Amino acid sequence: MNQKNIRNFCIIAHIDHGKSTLADRILEITKTVSKREMQNQFLDNLDIERERGITIKAQSVRINYTSKSGEEYIFNLIDTPGHVDFSYEVSRSLMACEGVLLVVDAAQGVEAQTLAHAFLAADMGLEILPIINKIDLPSADPERVCEEIENAVGIDCSEALYVSAKTGQGIEDIFDQIITKIPPPQKSEINETRALIIDSWFDSFLGVVLLLRVFDGKINNKDTIKLMSSDKTYEIRNLGVFSPEAKNVTLLSAGEVGFLTASIKQISDAKVGDTLTISTTPAKRPLRGFKDIKPMVFCGLYPVDSNFYENLKESLEKISLNDSSIDYEPENSAALGFGFRCGFLGLLHMEIVKERLEREFNLSLIITSPTVVYEIKKTNSEIVRVDNPKLLPDRSQIDTISEPFVNISLYTPKKYLGGLLDICEKRRGIQKNINFISEDRAVLEYELPMSEMIYDFYNKVKSITKGYCSMDYEQSELKISNLVKLDILINGEIVDALSLITHKDNSYYRGKELVEKLKKLIPRQQFEIAIQAAIGAKIISRETVKAFRKDVTAKLYGGDVTRKNKLLDKQKKGKKRMKNVGNVEIPQEAFMAVLSGKE
Predict the structure, then answer these.
(1) CA dihedral 224, 229, 232, 233 (to 10 degrees)
(2) Among candidates 441, 377, 381, 453, which has minimal Cα distance to 411?
(3) Which positions ≥6 away from 147 have C-beta within 8 Å?
(4) Three-state DSSP class for residue 351
(5) For a designed S-S bond to 185, which of 53, 255, 258, 392 qualifies (C-beta 3.0 to 4.6 A apart)?
(6) DSSP characters for 127-164?
(7) Can you give the three-state secondary structure of 279-346, one letter per residue?
(8) CB distance 124 to 229 below 8 Å
(9) Higher confidence at residue 62 or residue 334?
């Protein structure tokens, strides 16, 4: 195929704006998928993607299209995730394209990820085609949405397409715009072969499968390839394209998108965003933009029954074959037994991995409070990074603690601004900007500590705005904060799974809240149970679970009061002895309720 007849594009949108449905209609109209094989959200392979209506993994499909003039074209469509947690995948997909279809809901208008991904595409110099979707809805107002796009993103919407991906209305016009407005791949100026790895996953028969876009040169079947970041070489076993089922080809030339397998055993060797070249004539420089994906949020994963530890280990190994961004290492907790410390890209990523582990591998899991990575400068000038409160050095050894901050953008109807300003201030936020993108809607920009954002912030925002607010965030920088370690003690013993790092100003309230919850959840024993919150050796809050009390004076029928006191003292000594040898069993529900912020 002539390079000028190739078009590489992806669809970007906020969650639930109809991205996957639009991809379905494009596949249906171009007869890439027959009506018999067609199903909703065709490119979403995971059950959890279909249920939640979100895209988690980037998917690619080659579409053969014949224009009205009879000319044949190849469209390489890359469907991208919409959530901020997967923004690195989105950036790789954008880099493989020359243009994007920016899909915006005609009723909801511009939302957080719409803007974030549109700016990313504009920074890369891609052609952006605005498409107003869901015009069949009674509440649709495409003119207002066009105005919002022009104000917020700054692109001309005079030729924006009004479509309904559900009914198929206006979809045919998209193909003409793709041909006329999205440029074909540029002709390569160098003779070396360079291809970008857009995505990678593990296949139990073929090993690691690489989805790639060839920028320079060409890749032949049976070539020996070299991965530039790991410096490893492999011989190609299969070369092909997805259309949408896998189809083998003998050659992938510049501008084309396809896949290859090369008996790669470890998915960690084939990193997303890496450059692939031919080992006999390797490229001198890799393609720009590669970086190792760093986890942002950490938590502990423990099996409810400690006998299932090995099952959890095997399950994590299997799930990490298809998701290389999961980071995990074994850890031991006095309260919860053996488990793993896991790193995730964000809260949604954490939630999805937990759900997949429970569903696909039939596990029951406890997940500890999510934490972020703190940077500790010790008094001897040594710098250590801590993602687990129990690893925090002794207070006497700490000079400063720095925590990560994030820049948050909240897209909200104007009437909810007051409540959002209030919660951001309470969470130690620093206001950056308020921008009105239309008469009704505003963008609120704040710098917020990441630890405050991951602790039930989004749920509170949704509650304040009745679900009408969308949120986007990106990592900012580390800042020195007055942070302390808050310990929970049960009968004088620290429960490490409930320890957390919090700001000193909020520590009293957090401690009080935790001990009050535990008091309701820990069952009464034959002895008194003291639940305390402490910072170092200082107790800042206490609640007591009263003991069951037997009425030992019931058999008395009169006489001197000393007889009554004698029996009560005897009972008191027995309870004291029982407290010394008794063990407090904290029920799993208590951990789950405290750590998830529910009662």
Answers:
(1) 0
(2) 441
(3) 157, 438
(4) helix
(5) 255
(6) EEEEEEE-TTSTT--HHHHHHHHHHHT----TTPEE-B
(7) CCCCCCCCCCCCCCCCCCEEEEEEECCHHHHHHHHHHHHHHHHHCCCCEEEEEEECCCEEEEEEEECC
(8) no
(9) 62
| Pairing verdict, β 6-12 and 99-105 | parallel
**Where are the strands (E) in 70-113, listed by range?**
72-79, 99-105
Runs of H (alpha helix) within 182-264? none
pLDDT, tens digit, 9 for 90 and up, residues 75-111:
888 777 655 556 666 777 788 888 888 888 888 877 7
Average pLDDT over residues 433-439: 82
C-alpha span between 404 and 414 (Å, rounded): 29
539 has which bridge partners? 534
For residue 1, pLDDT beyond 50: yes
Rounded-to-integer distance, Cα 42 and Cα 194, Å: 30
Q: Which domains does the chain have, with CATH numbers?
A: 3-181 (3.40.50.300), 194-278 (2.40.30.10), 297-367 (3.30.70.870), 374-481 (3.30.70.240), 485-596 (3.30.70.2570)
Q: Angle at Cα 529 formed by Cα 528 and Cα 533, nearest 5°? A: 145
CA distance 584 to 491: 8
Measured in whole angstroms, the distance separating CA 50 from the mean position of its chain's CA atoms is: 17
pLDDT at residue 593 above 70?
Answer: no
Indicate if the alpha-carbon torsion angle 411, 414, 419, 424 is positive or negative.
Answer: positive
What is residue 15's three-state secondary structure? Answer: coil
CA 154, CA 156: separation in Å to the nearest integer? 7
In this structure, are residues 543 and 516 in contact, taking their beta carbons and an 8 Å threshold? yes
| Dihedral (Cα; 289, 290, 292, 294), 10-degree rounding | 20
Give the H/E segment covering residue 261.
strand 257-261
Whole-angstrom CA distances from 410 to 6, 150, 255, 477 are 38, 18, 37, 19
- Give the start-end residues of each E strand in 462-584: 470-481, 483-490, 493-494, 500-503, 529-535, 538-545
* pLDDT on residue 203: 76
- How far separated are the first and last CA of the chain, in Å rounded? 62
Q: Is the pLDDT of residue 581 over 80?
A: no
pLDDT digits (tens, 9 = 90+) for 251-278: 888 888 888 888 888 777 777 788 888 8
CA distance 368 to 69: 60
What are the distances in angstroms from CA 111 to CA 13, 83, 94, 448, 484? 9, 11, 19, 20, 36
Place of tokens 């027959």: 34
- Six token digits for residue 434: 């308020």
**Whole-number Å distance between alpha carbons of 487 and 492:** 11
Q: Which residues lie below 8 Å from residue 93, measured CB to CB, with a gap of 6+?
A: 10, 58, 78, 80, 198
Residue 160 CB contacts under 8 Å (≥ 6 apart), including other chains: 130, 131, 132, 142, 146, 149
| Phi, psi (deg, nearest 5) at residue 50 | -70, -45
Residues in the chain: 599
Whether residue 170 contacts residue 162, with contact meaning beta carbons closer than 8 Å, is answered with yes
Q: Which helix (H) or strand (E) holds 47?
A: helix 47-52
CA angle 510, 514, 516 (to 5 degrees): 120
Answer yes or no: is pLDDT of 598 > 50.
Answer: no
